[in-house]
Amino acid sequence: MSEFMLSQLLASVTLITECFAVQLKNQQRLLALLSLSCFFNGLHFFLLDQPTAGFIFLFSSLRFLISIRWKSQWLAAASLAVSLVIVFYTYIGFLSILGFIGTVFITVGSFSANDKVLRIMMIIGSGIWLCHNLILWTPVGVALEAIFISSSIIGYYRHYIANQAKKLPAPQSA
Fold it and tell me: Which of 38, 16, 7 is nearest to 106 (CA)?
């Protein structure tokens, strides 16, 4: 099996894990599964000769585990600093910068105690990673981000918009 095909297989594992994760209401379980998905996604990027994305995702795997236990702006800032160091040492061009920008949104969201903020920041960050994967042209990576965004929007709707509509009082008949 070629490295490209293996990378797409790893991205497929990431895709399945993330689609399941964003449908969970429990933030700790969501973050644990995102940690696992980041591990596989990092390996996917290494096989595509994208060290910045690879190291960012491996670090993101650890970051998600840390954010399960601690919600601190200091940890978010430290995580962003580590990601910036990764970009500095592995810089290979525009894709390195684009990946970092996507990571900023996801990092801020992952350290938020507010589940709504987490989900919105994940959608924005994933949109940026979608652009990254389109430029790189990793087909399963593109599908991964597109499906993750769609699934995240569905999860957000299910947990916040649909539930809010159920809580509204029924209209009074005249």
Answer: 38
Let me know if residue 174 belongs to a domain: no
Q: Is the pLDDT of residue 78 over 90?
A: yes
d(CA 143, CA 40) in angstroms, rounded, equals: 15
User: Six-digit token pair at 110?
Assistant: 């992952």
- Phi, psi at 172, each rounded to 5°: -85, 135
Task: Round the CA-based radius of gyration of the chain to a whole number and report it.
Answer: 17
173 in any annotated domain: no
156, part of any domain: yes
Structure tokens at 99: 């990946």
Count of structural domains within the chain: 1
SS (H, E, C) 57-106: HHHHHHHHHHHHHCCCHHHHHHHHHHHHHHHHHHCCCHHHHHHHHHHHHH
Sole residue written with tokens 């993101």: 60
Quick check: is 65 in a domain? Answer: yes
For residue range 18-43, list pLDDT tens digits in order: 888 877 888 899 889 999 999 999 99
Q: Is 154 helix (H, G, I), strand (E, B) or coil?
A: helix
